[in-house]
Specification:
Layout (H helix, E strand, L loop, with lengths): L13 H14 L3 H21 L5 H12 L6 H14 L3
Helix pairs in contact: 1-2
Length: 91
C-alpha cells in the first residue's frame, strides 16, 4: 500500500538556502529531510505552547476543589434538560 506524499514549496534567498544546505550537510542528511525535521520540531513546540494550560499552585487547588464538589445544575441547565427530555419523548 502506498501513501502519496504531500508537497510543501517555499522560496528562499540564496544565502538562506546555502546556510540550511550547509547545516544539512553537517548533519549528514538530505536537505529535504533536514527542513522537514526542523519544521516538525517547531510545529510541536508551537502546539505544545499554545495548547497546554499551566496553572499556578493556587489555580490548581481551586480547579481540583471544583472537580470534587457535587454537581449543582443552575436554572438554565435545568430548563435545558427538561426541554430535551420533553422533546425526546415519543409521540
Amino acid at each position: 500500500m502506498t501513501t502519496a506524499a504531500a508537497r510543501l514549496d517555499l522560496r528562499l534567498n540564496p544565502t538562506d538556502k546555502a546556510r540550511i544546505s550547509r547545516a544539512a550537510d553537517l548533519r549528514g542528511v538530505p536537505l529535504s529531510a533536514f527542513v522537514r525535521d526542523a519544521v516538525l520540531r517547531e510545529a510541536e513546540s508551537v502546539m505544545a505552547a499554545e495548547l497546554t494550560v499551566t496553572l499556578s499552585a493556587e489555580e490548581s487547588r481551586r480547579f481540583l476543589k471544583a472537580l470534587d464538589a457535587p454537581f449543582q445544575p443552575n436554572a438554565k441547565l435545568k430548563k435545558a434538560m427538561a426541554d430535551a427530555a420533553r422533546l425526546a419523548k415519543p409521540r
